[in-house]
Automatic annotation (TrEMBL):
Entry similarity comment: Belongs to the DHNA family.
Pfam family, one: FolB
Pathway(s) it belongs to: Cofactor biosynthesis; tetrahydrofolate biosynthesis; 2-amino-4-hydroxy-6-hydroxymethyl-7,8-dihydropteridine diphosphate from 7,8-dihydroneopterin triphosphate: step 3/4
Protein's name in the database: 7,8-dihydroneopterin aldolase
Function: Catalyzes the conversion of 7,8-dihydroneopterin to 6-hydroxymethyl-7,8-dihydropterin.
E.C. code: 4.1.2.25
PANTHER family: DIHYDRONEOPTERIN ALDOLASE 1-RELATED
Gene Ontology terms describing biological process: folic acid biosynthetic process; tetrahydrofolate biosynthetic process
GO cellular component: cytoplasm
Keyword Isomerase: yes
Length: 119
């Protein structure tokens, strides 16, 4: 099954970073999520209850960053992947988390976290 639900360019302001000055500010992160989901059932029923509701997943990501202040992008990715899989029963998650403009002369830094099956 190669069906997916996508959330691209999710912008969130978060307290995140290793250095003292980063603990005092909010920084913009940009996330892309690729979520394994069998879209045949909602495709036939036309019911959001059968779908992986991307609005609900987006709200979960925003709420997590409101409640947590990780140091590393990796820590955010690991926790979010586990939370999304657990809460929504998603079999596989690919998360890209970008921190734009943090390094001079570099457009984006970021991490990719893949957990579960995206086969
Ligand atoms: N692999 C990572 N490297 C770094 C991270 C990170 O989250 N993952 N973070 C930082 C600092 O917080 C950076 O954003 C500012 O220099 C450094 N390296």
């Amino acid at each position: 099954m190669s069906d997916r639900v996508l959330i691209e360019g999710l912008a969130v302001d978060a307290v995140i970073g290793v250095y003292d000055w980063e603990r005092e500010i909010q920084q913009r992160l940009e996330l892309d999520l690729t979520l394994a989901w069998d879209n045949r059932t909602p495709g036939h029923s036309d019911r959001v209850d059968d779908a992986l509701d991307y609005a609900a997943v987006t709200a979960t990501v925003r709420d997590w960053f409101a409640d947590n202040q990780p140091e590393l992008l990796e820590a955010a990715g690991e926790a979010l992947a586990a939370l999304i899989r657990d809460r929504f029963g998603v079999p596989g998650v690919r998360l890209v988390i970008r921190k734009p403009g943090i390094l001079p002369g570099v457009r984006n830094v970021g991490v990719v976290i893949e957990r579960g099956s995206l086969a």
